[in-house]
Write the structure tokens for this entry.
Amino acid sequence: MKKNKDEKGNGISRRSFLKASGAVSLAALASSCATSSAFAAGSDKLRVGLIGCGGRGTGAARDCIRSSDNVQIVALGDMFRDRVDKSLNNLKEELPAENVKVSEDTCFVGFDAYEKVIASDVDSVILATPPHFRPAHLKAAIEAGKHVFMEKPVAVDPVGIRSVIASSELAEQKGLAIVAGTQRRHQDHYLQVMKRIHNRAIGEIVSGQCYWNQGALWVSAAKKNLRKKKELGWSDMEYQCRSWLFFTWLSGDHIVEQHVHNLDVINWAIGSHPVKCLGMGGRQARTQPQYGNIYDHFAVEYEYPNGARVLSMCRQTEGCSSRVSERVVGTKGSVYTDGSNASIEGPNAYKYEGKSPSPYVQEHSDLIRSIREGKPLNEGRRIAESTLTAIMGRMSAYTGRELSWEWVMNKSELDLTPSAYQMGADPVAVPGQTKLI
Amino acid sequence: MKQTREHDSSGHGRRISRRDFVKSSAALSLAALTSGGSSRVFAAGSDKIRVGLIGCGSRGTGDAINCIKSADGVEIVAMADVFRDRLDESLGKLSREADDKVSVTNDKCFIGFDAYKKVIESDVDLVLLTAPPGFRPEHLKAAVEAGKHVFMEKPVAVDPVGIRSIIASSELAKQKGLSIVAGTQQRRMAQYIEVIKRVHRGQIGQIVGGQCYWNWGEQDWHFAKRQSNWSDMEWQIRCWPYFTWLSGDHINEQHVHNLDIINWAIGSHPVKCLGMGGRQARTGPEYGNIFDHFAVEYEYPGGVRILSMCSQIKGTTNRVSERVVGTKGTTYTTRGLGYIEGQNPYKYDGPGIRASVRQHADHISSIRAGEPINEGRQVAESTMTAIMGRISAYTGRELSWEWVMNKSTLDLTLPKYEMGDLPVPAVAIPGQTELI
């Protein structure tokens, strides 16, 4: 099964091969031959393309290489030349040469760079652009038969979520893997405590809280980008894409971009997405123009199917108390988790004493193993639901309206895609005035 | 022990003053209580209770009407407000509602920042303290020191310094055998009493969570549009809900009701809190310097975390209720409903009680029975719960009860009170507003 690189464009293409092998492994699974592998472990190279060469994308590429043997980064795509160059330099500095096989003709720049990476004879892609672009990128990757690692969050609006779910279903049919960058799902202390929750160690879940309250971030970058916009005559589009964190259409706002991690943990613990929510929020401290149109704080109450109400709080404000953690309350105890701790209080007390391996590497290792074993992981729907959990919280806070999951998932027509990729910023949302779409 | 009325209708003369009488009779009744008796200083309805109204806004006027209608032999005899027109309007309404119980002569109508003192000096037995909350600590102190029974509207302060004053006055009232009843009406609503009684009996098991809300699609509550001839001070007092130094912000002024229910259900004030909030929709300068939304997590003893949410934003979803979550069930309460779901389901289906009247009836009978109710500390703690949430949201800092109660030196009172210039303090900015 050795791959000849010169086959490109001729004969059985790499991606057709993977598609076929995926189909084979599905068939194998269906006939309960559970360990059948299209790849003999480690025997074949996995060719990876990176789409979105920012800090997280470059980090994900590095973690991907470090996670498994015989993995190569072979193509890079970004909107901006300088980002591609910087990313490539970093990868070359940090990784052995045999793992970074990117040539000038597999570096792509522009809004359509992702298409070219996908067409570059890769087996899998890392989708790490600003979240706005994720639904389109995932669709293209799955349609082209690529395995996918995609960063969270995976969309910024309900229309995008529906696209991600459709692509995930297609991936399932095609036997393609999708792993999402909600790394807590691959972190041992979370896994241990979730197993216990699901075995009813704390009884029935009746309440909970999750938080991502932190200080400021991208402070100097935000200022620098605004300055460069003026000095270098960047278009609004270029400026917004470079300062993407601060624009709702690109990041989904920080409740989506960052707090989705904690909401994902709550959905995981309860085993369901919420059924409704009521949120509030605003822009009280981070009000300067370089911070786009996102809020600086949100508080949302989510109601889950059994009536359990969970508080979500997130804030990005310098000088305020920090708290990044989750808490799940049951009839027989409560669970506390954060990035490195997990414990249960109550009759079934427990404390995780081990040391979780780096989840940023583990998630890639789990993905690649699943591909090689022909048992592709598919986290697409799950991460779509966690992302929609965050999106509905944002929509509720922006409009001041209580929202049902059913409505947001099925009826909302909110689509933040600009009509053309050139535009100015939308105004900051005002509850009671911002239209519910 | 039947008392002869010591006052003739003119009320003049150097006799035993009414308030000395009430003080001494309260002392007597305390003595009686400690010796196990049920002695009554007032035979029910046999003697007049003379009431002074301090703060003649719509709430004060409503309280006065409810008070005089709640029992026989109660009359309004003196009134105070910062503004003449408010007093006149109030007196007119009182007279229309219950003329036979309103004996307020011109010389018992007092205007100005010190008007409360004059009402207290007007030979009254009981005062209704219904000025904006920022004035409450000072008014309560004066009333209790002068030996008056007190009904006071919620909230009872706007800062920790004020709360400490309220608690001190409440303790003094206890020593003096004076009653203090607070306008946290839900404490006297039948569905609340029945549901919370069951919570305290363990019918929902151990409390492990809860929520309370005053989310309101209204944003012009008691709003007063500034007139060209109003000074800053006059404007701020007439539009008092929108200025933190006067109202304590809406988490205090309004949401204290819901927080009071949570404290009641749990049987304690919180031990810490983390709040957030802002001013996102109601941003015009005519709305002073308060926030339009707050979300606060309160932690109670035993690690129980409660979500509090309140907002006043036109066009947003309404939700005003409380919910207490236990290991065996959940309570849900509003001003119209009270029920329990879970292992011991319950639903209150009895008649509603007009708690706004009942609170005064209870108060009057407690005075007459010589068994003064003292809700001072309870309402001080519920008010402090709201204040600490506001301070946490304004500063962005997690706060402990211990610190706020004992260490915070925040004092929003002004060095002097007079009509004139008074710049509006800046709207709080979390992370920048100083924690005091």
Observations:
- The CA atoms of residues 208 and 303 of chain B lie 8 Å apart.
- Chain B touches chain A at residues 205, 208-211, 215, 217, 219, 274, 276-281, 293, 295, 297, 303, 305, 307, 309, 311, 313-317, 319, 323, 325, 327-328, 330, 395-398, 428-432 (CB under 8 Å).
- Chain B has a mean pLDDT of 90.
